[in-house]
Design brief:
heterodimer, A: 316 residues, alpha/beta, Rossmann fold, Hypothetical Protein Yjia, Chain: A,domain 2, 2 domains, 9-stranded mixed β-sheet, B: 595 residues, Diaminopimelate Epimerase, Chain A, domain 1, 3 domains, 8-stranded parallel β-sheet, 20 helices, globular
């Protein structure tokens, strides 16, 4: 079985599972994510094509249960057989860079994540669970569905509070506090009409969960933008910055920081930083680091000046 | 009154006789034109079969000895004394005594099976119980892991290409004390090719180390679906669809390919024939575009010994598209192939702990099961199909799921009243008397999974349901007492396709170790069980005007048995030999039986 050997050598496909009840905004989110692929070849496995409502200018071709987009993404409908749909995708050549599965409203996302455990080409990036702020009370008390609802939230590596605009702000805050009390390590973000930067959702790195905290630092040029109710701050950190110190600074920003990315260097050499889902991951690099550093978080993040100060003191 | 009546009968007799003579002439004319002949297959114009006993399931005439067939239909049913009248009325009828020592019943109808039964016989059966293959070969049950390994070793030694994947099915370790099968066991069969053993439930798979090495069992968090030994090392056993996925990825085989290939259909029909089934369901099939044409080509052949009722898998498409697809299938039907049902699976299985149960849920404390379709979505589908006038069959295993499905049906019927919808609950294993009462009111029928009593009865008593609730598992007695139309089924290939065995289960209600489940109120009589596997199932498929009983005008679908089940009685029901069947009056004799 030669293909077996080749499977092992082939690159990993990252798997993101979007979970959440019927009507919680999975399709809207997916719709938005597919327009921001940024060069990634994303394949999305969805429940219902029709609901996707992809901009017709973006559609390149449609064959049966598959739609190809002009940006290289592909959408496939699951029908009623996720296992076979997934097997079909994973037999394709070339493989996608990233696979997003829209779980059915009552699916247990850990069951879907389990496929990544046995497929050498599939790597679980994360489970993103949408929590409908407007329907939370109903779902949490549904006599038939409450257990499934809690199971989905528990499984999430990130919780997205959808439809925050439909209820009082205090109600959303109450929900967020409640979720934080139960799942203190799971990052949260609000999402309106599916509008969210793709970096927040993809790259959670759930599987490579080990937090490596090795060792220095920078001159800062920074900008801060607010978009979709999220704050984003980017900077060029010139000079060295130790991995340990960087990890410490990022941790000090929890729970307001959601994602961080950077290509930096320290005494040990160049490295890439990924922070997602509450976990920091460093990767050694052979390239000249650009010093580029990005933080995405909630509006509660310190302002640009404060952030510059924070990372300035970290630099040596 | 009696006197006048007698007179009138005498007076009218000559007139009746005259009209019969006309019929006789017509019949000859038809024969000459070839209208009474089959164009293909066995040649008979009109035949009277003499039997030792005929159990008709027709209350007007429950017992007979002679049956006349013409034009693929039943012309007359009666006794030796009627034959002369039939000959006079209908013209020359050939008397056939091939089955003079046999008992005839209406052709058995399996109201819940899967075409996958036909596919699995491409692989190797390794179940605990003896199972009859499509060619009549009895595959003896394998009583230990060592037996299974030895059997597979023997197969491996004789294969033309020993590097091809070796797939076995039907394995059920419930019956083995102590250890479970491991990758090392299957490496003993071969370490040079993929070896996979699929469990009877179809939800667990054991793999050899060849497959394990090719896969990359790396995510330790998911131990729920990967069985591990005490040291945390995966044993080669995978739960859910995970094992199947892994085997498919490793072998590049589509193990459970959409089963509408002619070969799969043929095998399926042969298994059916061996057990006396003349109409069988495939519950369900997504019927991809074009599949209906391929199926019809195979099924239409006179040599194909079975009517096939395909249930369209309703949630394979969104509601509107799904209804449209079902509408498009309607004119693709024929006498032998139907696309008349829509199927939904609303929850999982009790033994897999994925059925939705009411409080207090699982006896062993396992968390409540899974919805396979969310209740609101189910309501949406049922409403759409009720409006469009299509009969729906819904898989509901747990009692909570049964209740939610009844709610959804009630809502659909409020929106679109339909007196004879005959929506049917499939499996419906944990329904209570209150549920049956509600089904009666709503006009909902039920098809119970009676084979579970035998195969998983002990497990339900000890682990899933506890003794009290296991006592009302598949309560056929309660169902009939509450007046709900009843069918019973095998869910083949999950358990063996064999309606007489299913009937035996519903009548005797004992587990494989002989432990009784429930009492007399849950049992049904032999007569009621035979009705359930004929007329009961025909009613559930809305085919009771065509098949299900032996009465004038119905299709000539007949099951030929070695002995009369009414005389054999409750205990021996499952052991009665099936000689063969007739479908449309064409005889299909079983392999390995003397006519």
């Amino acid at each position: 079985m030669n293909q077996t050997a080749s499977h092992r050598l082939a690159p990993n496909v990252s798997l993101t599972i979007i979970a959440g009840f019927l009507g919680s905004g999975k399709t809207s989110l997916l719709n938005h994510l597919l327009t921001q692929s940024g060069g990634r070849k994303i394949t999305a496995l969805v429940n219902d094509f029709g609901a996707l409502n992809i901009d017709s200018e973006l559609i390149e071709a449609q064959h049966g249960n598959q739609v190809s987009l002009t940006n290289g993404c592909i959408c496939c409908s699951i029908g009623d057989d996720l296992m076979r749909s997934l097997a079909d995708i994973m037999r394709q050549d070339p493989l996608p860079d990233h696979l997003i599965i829209e779980a059915s409203g009552v699916a247990d996302p850990t069951r879907i994540a389990a496929y990544a455990a046995v497929d050498p080409q599939l790597r679980l990036d994360g489970i993103v669970t949408l929590v409908d702020a407007a329907a939370h009370q109903l779902h949490a008390q549904d006599p038939y569905l409450a257990d499934n609802y809690h199971k989905q939230i528990e499984a999430g590596h990130m919780l997205l509070i959808s439809k925050p605009d439909l209820v009082e702000d205090s109600q959303v805050e109450h929900l967020e506090a409640k979720l934080r009390a139960s799942y203190p390590k799971t990052p949260q973000a609000r999402v309106r009409h599916g509008h969210l930067p793709i970096e927040v959702v993809l790259g959670l790195q759930a599987e490579t969960g080990e937090q490596t905290t090795p060792p220095h630092a920078p001159q800062i040029l920074s900008t801060q933008i607010e978009d979709h109710g999220l704050a984003s701050w980017s900077a060029h950190l010139h000079g060295g910055l130790s991995r340990e110190v960087l990890a410490e600074k990022i941790s000090s920003l929890t729970p307001h920081v959601l994602r961080a990315k950077g290509v930096l260097r320290d005494a040990q050499g160049a490295y890439a930083l990924h922070y997602a889902g509450g976990r920091i991951h460093f990767e050694d690099l052979d390239v000249q680091p650009s010093g580029h550093f990005v933080l995405i978080g909630k509006p509660e993040l310190p302002n640009a000046q404060a952030l510059s100060d924070l990372f300035q003191t970290a630099s040596a | 009154m009696a006197h006048i009546l007698a007179q009138s009968i005498i007076r009218h007799k000559p007139i009746l006789f005259l009209s019969k003579t006309c019929a006789l002439v017509l019949s000859h004319a038809e024969a000459m034109l070839g209208l009474g002949h089959f164009e293909k297959g066995e040649s008979f114009v009109s035949t009277i079969y003499q039997a030792k006993s005929i159990r008709t399931m027709d209350p007007h005439q429950p017992h007979a000895t002679h049956i006349a067939l013409k034009d693929r239909k039943i012309l007359a049913v009666g006794t030796a004394q009627d034959v002369a009248d039939w000959q006079a009325a209908w013209g020359p009828l050939e008397l056939n005594t091939d089955f003079a020592d046999r008992t005839l019943l209406p052709g058995f109808i399996e109201g819940h099976a899967h075409m996958m039964e036909g596919l699995l016989w491409d692989y190797h059966y390794v179940g605990y119980y003896d199972r009859e293959g499509p060619d009549g070969t009895i595959w003896p049950g394998l009583k230990s892991i060592d037996d299974v390994v030895a059997h597979l070793k023997q197969i491996q030694a004789t294969r033309n290409d020993p590097s091809e994947p070796l797939i076995a099915w039907g394995f059920d370790p419930i019956y083995f004390e102590g250890r479970r099968m491991t990758g090392a066991d299957l490496d003993a069969v071969s370490g040079e090719c993929p070896v996979a053993v699929l469990h009877a439930s179809l939800h667990i798979l054991n793999a050899n180390n060849f497959i394990m090495d090719a896969a990359d069992v790396k995510n330790a968090d998911n131990s729920e679906y990967i069985r591990r030994d005490d040291s945390g090392k995966p044993t080669g056993e995978f739960l859910g669809q995970l094992g199947m996925y892994m085997a498919m990825r490793t072998t590049n085989l589509d193990l459970l390919a959409a089963a509408s290939s002619p070969k799969t259909l043929q095998t399926f029909s042969q298994v059916a024939r061996q057990t006396g089934v003349t109409t069988c369901t495939d519950l369900a099939n997504p019927v991809p575009e074009g599949a209906e044409v391929a199926m019809r080509e195979t099924v239409e052949k006179d040599s194909f010994p079975m009517r096939l009722v395909v249930a369209f898998q309703g949630n394979s498409l969104p509601p509107e598209e799904s209804v449209a697809r079902m509408q498009a299938l309607q004119d693709k039907q024929s006498d032998k192939l139907r696309f008349s049902l829509v199927k939904f699976v609303a929850d999982g299985s009790i033994q897999g702990f994925s059925a939705r149960l009411k409080w207090p849920h699982y006896y062993n404390g396992a968390p409540n099961g899974l919805w396979y379709i969310e209740p609101d979505r189910l309501r949406e589908y049922l409403t759409a199909f009720t409006q469009a006038g299509f009969q729906c069959h819904v898989h509901t295993n747990g009692d909570e799921c049964t209740e939610v499905t009844l709610d959804a049906i009630e809502d659909a019927l409020r929106a679109h009243p339909w007196p004879d919808h005959r929506h049917t609950l499939q499996h419906c294993q944990m329904a209570s008397r209150a549920h049956f009462k509600r089904m009666k009111t709503l006009g909902v029928g039920v098809n119970l999974f009676s084979n579970h009593l035998y195969y998983w009865g002990d497990e339900h008593r000890a682990i899933t349901m506890g003794p009290e609730r296991a006592g009302r598992l598949d309560d056929a007695g309660g169902c009939l007492e509450e007046g709900v139309p009843l069918a019973i089924h095998s869910d083949a290939p999950v358990t063996a396709l064999a309606p007489l065995f299913t009937a035996w289960c519903a009548v005797n209600r004992v587990s494989s170790t002989g432990v009784a489940l429930g009492g007399e109120s849950e049992k049904i009589s032999v007569e009621q069980a035979l009705y359930a596997i004929t007329m009961g199932a025909a009613y559930s498929l809305k085919m009771d005007t065509e098949i299900g009983s032996l009465e004038v005008g119905k299709r000539a679908d007949i099951t030929i048995l070695a002995d009369d089940p009414i005389e054999v009685g409750a205990q021996g029901l499952k052991d009665i030999s099936v000689i063969g069947t007739m479908v449309d009056g064409l005889v299909h004799l079983n392999k390995g039986r003397d006519a």
